[in-house]
Backbone:
């Protein structure tokens, strides 16, 4: 497990209009925060991962993306094994203050452990003709 749930972390955030406000980033009951990682420039979504408080703090301190591996149950510096590090260019919190968008520069060739640039390298094929959804 990731350990006891720690209280949220309060930080200053800059809004789209340039104004600032205090936000409190809330980690889930399991102590994890979902993170979307997007390549700065191309805007390609590279991966979705999770951070615990330690990974969040290390990411802010080092400028390199750290995550919590749910499968290995350990802290993970992306690139420590592969050499494909993710240099953080910005961090943004969502409107509910419970997930992050991490913009990065890929220092290497691949963000995915399979060797692909993105973990989203397989587009699903439609089963048949699609119909527009009816408004709710």
Residues:
């Amino acid at each position: 497990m990731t350990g006891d749930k720690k209280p949220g972390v309060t930080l200053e955030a800059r809004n789209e209009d340039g104004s600032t406000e205090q936000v409190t980033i809330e980690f889930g009951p399991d102590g994890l925060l979902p993170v979307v990682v997007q390549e700065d420039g191309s805007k390609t979504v590279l991966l979705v991962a999770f951070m615990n408080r330690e990974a969040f703090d290390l990411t802010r301190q080092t400028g390199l993306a750290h995550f919590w591996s749910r499968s290995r149950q350990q802290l993970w510096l992306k690139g420590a094994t592969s050499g494909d590090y993710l240099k953080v260019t910005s961090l943004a919190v969502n409107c509910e203050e419970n997930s992050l968008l991490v913009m990065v520069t890929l220092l290497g060739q691949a963000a995915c452990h399979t060797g692909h640039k993105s973990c989203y390298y397989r587009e699903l094929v439609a089963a048949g003709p699609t119909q527009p959804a009816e408004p709710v």
